[in-house]
Amino acid sequence: MSQGNRDPDFYTSLDTLSRLRYKATGFDFLPNQPINSLLTGRHVSKLRGRGLNFEEMRHYNVGDDIRTMDWKVTNRTGKPHVRIYSEERERNVYLLIDQRAGMFFGSQRKMKSVIAAEIGALIAWNIIGATDRVGAIVFDDSSSVTVAPHRSANHVLKLLSQVVLKNHALGVESAALSQRSSFSGFFKQAQRLVKHDGLVIIITDGYGYSSHNDDAIKKLCQHNDVVFCHVTDPLEHQLANLGDVVFSDGAKQVSLSSDDEPFREKFSSDVTQAIEGFAKLARKFKIPMLHFNTIEETDVQLRAQLGHHSRTMK
């Protein structure tokens, strides 16, 4: 099957992701969220928003905010000094988009890999509209592609092109051979790209995460805001109770027998542990988690979870 004729529920396209630009409204990642937004709550710290850049040190003038006083310089010189800051006009936002073989799954509508690509596209278009910079790491089971943060429509198209390339490399063969690789290599790449005072949005199903990566997550959270976009399919929770099942990418098929009771129990345990483990990780580091399924429209889900009302898009 050629790329041009591929089923859009199985594989995304640059045209599809580009058109999401017109649906990337009605949500944001600003510090002050609506009361029903999932970015608020007792387990979630407020997002930092844009930071401050140091501009200059000068003598204190009547009316200056006492909180900007630099006491070290004041004590050293014997004269009151204040530090002057300006608000950053732009903030770096990093999208970490999972296109591993385990994401190539969907039971009713779209694949998890397609939903992840759409989430990334919607956020990227929204971010540049807010005059912030957006970058990405798009990763599969064997490698990752890094796109440094910039702010322009052409840059977003370049970023989404990388997502499409990884997405089109998925198939039954890659899913069958996948070992659900860990996040280790991906986090090493993230540490090189992400510096500080940014917003890091990790879009994944969470499979393959291990406690060995806790230090990397901790470091990201210390100097940046981190948000999880957790993508799952409803059938993942029921697969262990099925008999023989057949999976297809629209062109090829692979069958899986679950008649073996030990197999069903282990499969059920693996799925449950993966989903619950990722939720525990979010609670441990107080990371907001947005939940996505493969059935509903991606923009509607994103808008609803960030506390904004959905409206008709043309």
From TrEMBL:
It comes from the Bacteria. This is DUF58 domain-containing protein. Residues 56-272 form the DUF58 domain. It holds the Pfam family DUF58.
